Amino acid sequence: xxxxxxxxxxxxxxxxxxxxxxxxxxxxxxxxxxxxxxxxxxxxxxxxxxxxxxxxxxxxxxxxxxxxxxxxxxxxxxxxxxxxxxxxxxxxxxxxxxxxxxxxxxxxxxxxxxxxxxxxxxxxxxxxxxxxxxxxxxxxxxxxxxxxxxxxxxxxxxxxxxxxxxxxxxxxxxxxxxxxxxxxxxxxxxxxxxxxxxxxxxxxxxxxxxxxxxxxxxxxxxxxxxxxxxxxxxxxxxxxxxxxxxxxxxxxxxxxxxxxxxxxxxxxxxxxxxxxxxxxxxxxxxxxxxxxxxxxxxxxxxxxxxxxxxxxxxxxxxxxxxxxxxxxxxxxxxxxxxxxxxxxxxx
Length: 347
Description:
By secondary structure, the chain is α/β, with parallel strands linked by helices. It has three domains: 8-172, Rossmann fold (3-Layer(aba) Sandwich); 177-215; 216-347, Up-down Bundle (Zinc Finger, Delta Prime, domain 3). It contains 15 helices and five strands. Helix 4 (99-110) links the parallel strand 2 and strand 3. Helix 10 packs across helix 12 (254-276). The longest helix is centred in the last third of the chain and has 23 residues, at 254-276. The chain is globular and about 65 Å long.
C-alpha cells in the first residue's frame, strides 16, 4: 500500500505502470522541494521489485530493503555523491551532478540485477545536471538496460535539456492541499491550532510540514526570516549592503541558508502583492495580516512583481555557485523603496 499522502493522479499513473508489468524506463517527477516526490520515487522503486500481489506491500524483503536504503539494485544519486574516479571519490562540496557520477551510474545500470528484479536509479536534483553530464546521460536514456528504470527528480524541469525531457514519462507533484496537510499533522498528534499554523507555512509541502512538526527550529527560522524581510525592505541602502555582506561571515552552508531565506522572502512579497491589490485569500502568512495590510500600501504592484523576478534570478545565481555576497548585494539594489516611510512599530 502506498503511504504517500496526496498526489492521487501521480500515484494512479504509477500504479497503472506497475500493474502493466512494462513500466516506462525513464520518469521525471517534478515539483517543489519537500512536496513528496522523493518519497514517491522510493516507494515506486519498492513497488517495482515487490513480491506481493498488492505493490508496494511494505512488508516483503525487497520493499523493506528499498525503503531502508539498503537494496542492492536501487541506487540514489545526488549532488556530492561518490564516483569511480580514483582521484576524487566524492564531491561533498558540490551543488551539481557531475559527469563522473553519471558514468558511475551508467556502469551500475549496465549490470544485471543482483536480486533478480529490476535495477532502479533515483537521480535527485536532476535539474542540477551539468551540460556535459546531461549529454552523457542521453545514451542511457535512449538505450536503457532491459531491466532498468530511471527516476529523475527536479524542482524546475525547465532547467533540463529538451533532449532529456522528451525521453521521460513526466509526472507533476503539485503542492498538497492545505486541509490534507492539517489532517496529516492532526493524525500525528498536533494540536489543531499548531497544525493550522504549520500547514499554512508549508505552502503545500507536506514533507516540510512533517519535519517542522518534529523540529520546531524550522518554524523559528522562518519567523526570523520574515522579520528580516521587512527589516531589510525598510532599511537604508547602506544597511541593505551590510545585510548582504553578512554572507561572507556565515558558517559553511551559507548558500543553502540563503536559498531558504529567499524562498521565505518570495512567499512574503507575494503576500504583499496580494494585499496591495485588496486580496487576502490564499496568503502564505495570514497570521501577519495586519503587517501585510500596511506593507501593501507602501509599494506599487509593478515594483513588487519586478522584485519577485529578481528574487527568482538570485536563487538561480546561488544554485549556480555565484558568490553569495555578490548575488545578495545585487539583489538589494532591486528591493522596492517604501513610498510613504515605514509603518508604525509593533505591527
